[in-house]
## 1
Amino acid sequence: MHIRTRRLVDGSFSGEYHSIFKGRGMEFAEVREYSPGDDVRTIDWNVTARVGRPFVKQYVEERELTVMLAIDCSASTRFTTTEHSKTAIANNVAAILAMSAMQNNDKVGLILFTDEVEKFIPPKKGRSRARYLLHELLSFRPEHRGTNVGRAIEFLRQTTHRRSVSFIISDFRTSDFERPLRLVSKRHDIIPISIDDPREMEIPNVGLLTVQDLETGMSRLIDTTNRDVRRVYYEHQQRALVRRRGLFYSLGMDTVELNTDQPYLPALLGFFRRRQRRLAHGR
């Protein structure tokens, strides 16, 4: 996987990543006493008032980013009716993002969560970092089955004090994350990556069907020949999808929508190019 990902990044993603994630530009370093010719807009008025003579803020160019990968490892992400599970897609996407960040000399950290934050690897940089994160991701076995995206977002807010580009990879099949997402988006550049399966959106007409909630273990028998049952389920899923999209849009977030029955590479490249066009137009 490491070799395949490196080839993908070298061939397609490295330049795309670098063009849209370049760092914040300037970072505060210190204050010093004002000298004639200094830009008055850099005066630190709080220090000036406290000391009694003018001081100015000094900045240094900030080249590196902090990239956080928060990945949902709950039982629902293991569901699939196609060749690839949500977990497999999430792992591949995370590997591409981690490798791209490493080649850009950025710091990368990892949060693996269910209904609890089960593993946290603080952001660091280094040539071997992507391989280490990939090993931790692939070898991880969660202790819990539930989902709490909001708890993971709050953990991100509490532990990542420096502004970051944070990718949250989940199926977002929970409704507990709106408030923490609004709070964390004020400091961090949050990019939700949602992964869905076609059978979660629509039930086929296959007669009597036993379905089980992978997170709670509860089972239920449903009659899929009943048109009203299929319609109510479809409408419920569509409303949830509209709410999710509306929330991300209201917060001005760039998003990536993936499906287990579609290749993830074109969607990921499409996100990079959409974001590049938006930045080029100053939006």
## 2
Amino acid sequence: MSDVYLFGSPVAHSLSPAMHNAAFKALGMPHRYSALEVEPDRLVNVVTTLRHGDALGANVTIPHKEAAVRLVDEASDEVRATGALNTIVRRGSRLAGANTDVAGFDAAVGPDRLSGAVVLLLGAGGAARACAYALLRRRNEVLVANRSSERLEELVRTLELAGRRPRAVPWPKGRTALSGVDAVVNATPLGLHGEDPLEGIDLPRVVVDIVPTSEMTPLVKRARAAENVAVVDGLAMLLHQAARSFELWTGAAAPLEVMRAALPRSV
């Protein structure tokens, strides 16, 4: 039996173990996926342990997606472009980093929903970097707002694709703050504990909330109740990034419908 881990803090709420363990069982693979609470000062030691033994690798989540890039031996194109990873694959004693959040975002949103859209991205962490990269690759105009100006400035300074960059804007305030915006992507943790990052603000025609929770987040609930608003729930991105990670660890096609069925609600 080989292990796969989720490194992050917090991780107790994670739905990833249910998905991956269901997939391993469905394919008769003797592996086990476990969530491990890892504080920042333990990350180096924990990642180093992957080099020894027979672990397949790990997922990496908040707050480690950027810091973990420095701890792997190889990095995919998406990792180099975004400066963040969410997947580590062990290859002998070497560690390869991948960012399956990019593919997960693309699959969740679909090819046409954001065509030509001006998109406001909320957040400037590792997940936001993956979303920003995917949006730039689609040739969207990308505006980014974040509560920490330092992280926001770092994102817009370092993320570029074919000469195009995201543009920093203030955090939206006031009911009509999103006028002129076609879509909003919430890539912050706001929603994990019942927050609505856009409370009191009229929503645009597309709302993407990548926060993966057992119950719908307040933002998703409000968007679903609104007229003429298309909604992408965080469980969709979670599912598709997980499927890609599974394939990198095992070399086998992910049983997507089995993983979907392991989620607490339909997506």
## 3
Amino acid sequence: MGRVAKPRPGPLLSWYDQHRRWLPWRARPGEEIDPYRVWLSEIMLQQTTVKTVTGYYTRFVSRWPKLPALATAPLEEVLQVWAGLGYYARARNLHACAQTILTQYDGQFPCDREALRALPGIGTYTANAIAAIAFNEPVVAVDGNVERIMARLLAVEDPWPTAKSRIHAQAQALAPDERAGDFAQALMDLGATICTPQRPACALCPWQASCQAHRRGDPETFPRKPRKREGLLRRGAAFFVRRADGAVLVRTRAPHGLLGGMTELPTTAWTPAFDPAQAIDEAPPLCLADNKTATWRQLPGRVTHVFTHFPLELVVYAAQVAARTPAPEGMRFLLPEALEEAALPSVMRKVLALAMSSRPSGW
């Protein structure tokens, strides 16, 4: 076999000029680049597809077109608009980051990568993406797409995560002094549309002549990743309490950790050792008239949801109470219109859907 040519920025940039994706957060040629929109899109795109992000991004910039508007919005409102996008720590960090930039940088994004990395929710990848795209710094934002491209270009045999440092260094070595932002976005587009995980379109790739995996004929086998271990199934119970006026009992989760700051129906702990026989012991302590106790009914079916590190299965118990029943300490009742606007994560909307579809007539 002949020697494989070293990849150069030129062919990739020429391809990008003809085939770039037109995304709502991406400035068109000749338009001024807004660091706020670059940052917002990059935070939303972490672990999330372009298709899913597009609608959320559009709603965010419509509601908060500039950073000061987002920074001064209540966190609860930000979480409401984010609800359903997942990985809710991103929303909390987004709000904290906007506030930090407003107070410490007078609302202007710093262009220094170290200063960017010091901001809430911004790691190496996001700092590099903002620096390259918004400020044309000659750096590469290396995400999973770029790691895959580099692993194939070099036919890296080392398994993950051993190969990461080499791949990241090689990617940074490719960054051009000119058009650094376009180069960074071209790599993103190449990984999303050509150098895909399965069935890469090698015949259309501008770096085909430089790709060692293509020359070998096995690009789909790169990068060499160990088999992912799935987390243990966790189980629990959720409690649907509906007053006669239609209000539903909810509470706010702790501000940090999984689904931090989001609204939820009361639940038991989520654990692999969940005991259904003990579930009612963790039900909300409702204060009913005449010192009566709530009548709980287990609803048919299960709610299943998969988080990043574990799958979850919930049984749902329901109780109907009088219109003037007070909420237990740390909880509150929300009427249907307020519930619709609440910052409910997807798993809680699944619980509500099961409860509303299973409730007896007259509830």
